């Protein structure tokens, strides 16, 4: 695994949360009367249902933690759920008379554990996206597509036409009539009116292109002081008529503490959008006609469950 995509801290945090949630569910489900006594409130009929919800939450956490490619946006919503739980316990801990003194201590202790797990998950998200040795964060995805690498490169390298494949873009062009290559500057605008420019800083014919977003421009719309992105294409090991397309972004947030929020949101949008973008590129690369392989299995492009 690449060092900047170390998923182990996030996996451990998610599994720890799953263990605690499932253990709590077992206690609530098997001894609702005792838990009600501790709390000083008669809610024995509610606790089994709460236990079922916690158990489902725990199973989802295990699923997240054991995926070959963890989705940080899912870890983010798990952390948000934990924080909502903590906030929801405030009245029971702080308002006298709602619970017994034992119940207040018990609910408070659980809230401390849940808050700690949420913090560990957020740190795990940061670590998952962190680029080693620099204050930058990365999101990357790989897409397998039923189109040869050579054909895909012809489309990907046509930098000024990216608007044809990304629905959010309203316009894209290379400035000053430049041909695609190192030094060319691409200007893009989206349908919400945002506008930005990207300079091609690396161009390896047939293989990859790297673009540096001109983040110092006064109207740069993204919350980053530095930002780069790129496309790599290589033949598939499985078939000569297939290829793997890698799309990636690296950025330095204007506010570093926002990284565990920004990168999952970037990942959520990219993972949902770019397989279809690559599929449109493949359709164009094949001259607008689906390949026999895509007709046979119904798949033109699919997101690969790998870290990159």
UniProtKB/TrEMBL annotation:
One Pfam family named in its UniProt record: Polyketide_cyc2
Keyword Plastid: no
SUPFAM superfamilies: Bet v1-like
This protein's record includes keyword Chloroplast: no
Record-annotated membrane-spanning stretches: 12-31, 43-63, 75-96, 102-120
Entry-linked Gene3D superfamilies: 3.30.530.20
Matches recorded under InterPro entries: Polyketide_cyclase/dehydratase (IPR019587), START-like_dom_sf (IPR023393)
Keywords per UniProt: Membrane, Transmembrane, Transmembrane helix
Domain of life of the source: Bacteria
Name assigned to this protein: Polyketide cyclase/dehydrase/lipid transport protein
Lineage per the UniProt record: Bacteria, Pseudomonadati, Pseudomonadota, Gammaproteobacteria, Cellvibrionales
